[in-house]
Amino acid sequence: MITVDDGVTAITSATGNGLTAGADDGSLDVQSTQSMQGNATGTTTLNVSDGGYSGASSSLTTAATGNTVEASISGGGDMTSTVTQTTGPVSITTDSQINAGLAETGDVTASSQAIANSAGIGASTGYSGTTVNQTSTAITQADGGATVQYTAGALSLAATAVSNNLTATGTDGAAQDVTATQSMTGVRTQAAQFVAVGNGQTVTNAATATANNISATGEWNPLNVVTVQDNTGYVRAQAETTSYEFGSSSSLAYGVGNSVMAGEIGSDLTLTNTQTNSGDGVQSIASSTGNNGYDLTGSAIAMGNAVTGYSCSSCGGTVNATNSQYNSSDVGATGTVSFTASARSVTGVATAVGNSATFYTTKPTN
Which of 111-120, 208-217, 304-313, 346-355 has the lowest average pLDDT? Predict the structure, then answer.
């Protein structure tokens, strides 16, 4: 626990298994098998004394990860990687709280992130061949919140929970073959934040929960991606904000069972995607309430399966996609916006989709 009357930077991190591999020249072969069978918990609390001031700028970062791999190569060499990650029936949880109910804050940025399995693969110029297998039976949960009497700055809070995550990045002409399998069979993937502000200039509250997530991007050479995702767990994203007086106050809740994004700039994208979401439901709840102010926003988005693939049309790129999506889970989104006195603009959005697929070619802008 941290008690301050001035600006603070706090970083809290809990990791079960971690591997970092890299090469600036030559080739690289990464073979990694990780198993996480214990809990990982990260907690950060910022207390501002009654009548006090937290300072001009504060930053809180809270993270808990079961298994993580970071592998990269540059200098034109080739990399092959085979990554297997398993997280058992444990808890991967974070909690970030700001207690300033009778105090003032300046600009505050706080993030709470919980990930059961994470792999980051990066290649520059050369070639990357990646095979990733991720399995989680864990509870993955990120919580956050704040109670603030007054802030003239920006109060920005984000909670993110992901059971399985893969990010593959190719730059400077790197070609990539990516094959990824993700399975989430744990109880839940959940992100939740509750914020209460007496008088706030800019208040942003975001909660994102994703059971399985894959992002693959490339530049100027072909990107070939094969993905298989399966989720049977409950997914919940909840962001609730109360601002009595406000300049702008927003809540965003985004929950998805399976998510894939693949993009190639300058060459061809080939994507074969299979997604199955059959869990206990995907639910997103966003609530923004206040008394008097200017702009009030509440947005809730829930999806069972979501995939996006794109390439650069002006660079001669094409998209060749084969897509299969199955959702048998209840998907619900609730967006609530309310005020008691006056507001300049009020926006409420609720979107619930079982399966979403978007494929396109586009001309990038500089």
Answer: 304-313
Amino acid 11 reads I
| pLDDT tops 90 at residue 334 | yes
What's residue 278's pLDDT?
97
Q: What is the mean pLDDT of the chain?
A: 94
- Residue 286 and residue 122: Cα distance in Å, rounded? 35
From CA 229, how far away is CA 180, in angstroms rounded?
A: 8
- Do 94 and 45 touch, CB atoms closer than 8 A? no
Please report which confidence band the pLDDT of residue 2 belongs to, taking 50, 70 and 90 as the band edges: very low
Backbone φ, ψ for residue 49 (5° rounding) = -65, 155
d(CA 23, CA 122): 11
Phi, psi of 194 (to 5 degrees): -130, 125
Measured torsion, CA atoms of residues 62, 116, 182, 300, in degrees rounded to the nearest 10:
-40
**CB contact at 8 A, 260 and 303:** no
* Tens digit of each residue's pLDDT (9 = 90 or more) over 105-139: 999 999 999 999 999 999 998 899 999 999 999 99
The number of distinct structural domains making up the chain is: 1
Place of tokens 């929970």: 161
Contact by Cβ (8 Å): 170, 223:
yes
Strands (E), the chain: 2-4, 9-23, 28-36, 40-48, 57-73, 78-87, 91-105, 107-124, 127-136, 139-171, 175-184, 188-219, 223-231, 234-265, 269-277, 282-312, 319-327, 331-342, 345-362
Q: Which of 98, 95, 10 has its CA nearest to residue 49?
A: 98
8 A C-beta contact, residue 263 and residue 310: yes
Q: What percent of the chain has pLDDT over 70?
A: 97
- Residue 40 in contact with residue 66, Cβ under 8 Å? yes
Domain of 344, in residue numbers: 2-362
Q: Work out the average pLDDT over 299-325.
A: 92
Cα 56–Cα 60–Cα 61 angle in degrees, nearest 5:
150
How far, in Å, CA of 221 to CA of 218, rounded? 7
Separation of alpha carbons 66 and 256, rounded Å: 20
